Amino acid sequence: MPHITVKPFDTSLLVAGKCSEATEILFVAQDNFSSDELLGIKHDQEEFLLHLKKNSQSWLLKYDKVTRPLNVNLVKEAIGDVSKSLGLDVLQSNITIHPTKATISSRYEKTIEDFVDIQFPFSTVAIEVGFGSGKHLLHQAQKNPETLFIGIEIHTPSAAQVLKQIELLGLQNVWVVNYDARLLLEMIPSNICSQIFVHFPVPWDKKPQRRVISTAFLQESMRVLDVNGRLELRTDSPKYFWYSVETFLGEHVAKTNVEIRKNEALEVTSKYEARWLRQEKDIYDVYVTAIEKSDERVLSFDFSFGEISYKKEILDKISYKPKLFEGFFMHFERLFKIGENAILLKLAFGSFDRPEHKYIYIDKSKAYYFNSNPVKTLTNHKTHLKILEYLDV
Ligand SMILES: C[S@@+](CC[C@H](N)C(=O)[O-])C[C@H]1O[C@@H](n2cnc3c(N)ncnc32)[C@H](O)[C@@H]1O
């Protein structure tokens, strides 16, 4: 990911204002517990953070994981502009822009915010969760030009690569969303999908809370699927297979049929599948079919901060221990000061198996999530109300 290593410099040079025609520093935020700083950047209408990490010999100016845009070139350009405008002494850099390598076809890239009022231009919709290299997603899209395929992938380089493939293949019926599928699914309207593919999800044997399959994911999938629509899990992991079967047969989702297959041959073999086949491993399929219509989802949650503004008392109140509630949590991870009258809070919150990671900007007159609101889910909204209560000092 883009970064430069620079010689230590006088940080009083870091001030809000324009660095170039395209790049503006919105604020400079100082970590309360280390010498790290975050720069709020506006570049080509996108807002994100850059992270300045100070080691003893050299400093690192790099992207921030929570706020990074999908188009990595924006981060590279912003780092370049900041470095140039401050006259930094660059020791090492990987921000060269390769125009042939990294251009992204934004027409097919959708953000989570787009889904608030998105129109689906096809009558049939299918979803693939964690498409990796995209082999199955692209194959399906080519074979079914009348179906819209929504590919959701958390790994940014894979999402960018597949966007390039879509462009090269001239496909009109694929959208790519670079996000956590467990959260994005909650933004999809009810009863619109015919298939949801989850092929070879990471088993996360040691961190089960990171698994894609959970009761909540199953419930969301069944809501999104139309009657007779199918969730299709394919895995090589016997442990994940049994865990999923137990989840699917659990008492929380009544409106389903579950089918199990072993070593079913599909028309297309993904990179992962090819590896397991070479090792002669068994491959398991579990199909869960929706058998009833679901209610429409509610998306009218408000994530604004009302009267909340910066007061010194907030600094005394913030505790960095996770706070657990019934079905959700709130964990303030870091606090950054922006001068004397504003702060940036980094936090994780929401449901345990689908946490959100966000920043909250607070100054004397306003507070908001930087650089976008949380996903509009009931759990996130419940947590947001707790955050409001907590910050109201
Ligand atoms: C083992 S790979 C399988 C890729 C592909 N389905 C295949 O069969 O080759 C799992 C993929 O799921 C993605 N992934 C993991 N958790 C995810 C999540 N919560 N939301 C979206 N994608 C996720 C990973 O980035 C990775 O690309």
Outline of this structure?
The chain is α+β, with helices and mostly antiparallel strands and 393 residues long.
Instruction: Indicate the radius of gyration in whole angstroms.
Output: 23 Å
Indicate the percent of residues in helices. 10-25%
From the N-terminal CA to the C-terminal CA, the straight-line distance is 39 Å
Helix/strand order, N-terminal first: EEEEEEHEHEEHEHEHEHEHEHEHEEEEEH
Oligomer: single chain
Heterogens: S-adenosylmethionine
What is the CATH architecture assignment of the largest domain?
Answer: 3-Layer(aba) Sandwich
- Round the mean pLDDT to the nearest integer and report it: 92
**Sheet with most strands:** 12 strands, antiparallel
- Determine and state the CATH class of the largest domain: Alpha Beta
What is the strand content?
Answer: 25-35%
The number of domains is: 3
| Mass-distribution shape | globular
General description of the model:
β9 (124-129), α3 and β10 form a beta-alpha-beta unit. The two termini are 39 Å apart. The longest helix has 15 residues, at 72-86. The chain has three domains: 3-100; 104-290, Vaccinia Virus protein VP39 (Rossmann fold, 3-Layer(aba) Sandwich), CATH 3.40.50; 312-391, no CATH class. The model has no long low-confidence stretch (mean pLDDT 92). It contains ten helices and 20 strands. The strands form two sheets. Strands 1, 2, 3, 4, 5, 6, 7, 16, 17, 18, 19 and 20 form a twelve-stranded antiparallel beta sheet that branches. It is globular, with a radius of gyration of 23 Å. 24% of the residues lie in helices and 32% in strands. By secondary structure, the protein is α+β, with helices and mostly antiparallel strands. Bound molecules: S-adenosylmethionine. S-adenosylmethionine binds at residues 129-133, 152-155, 158, 180-182, 199-202, 212, 270-273.
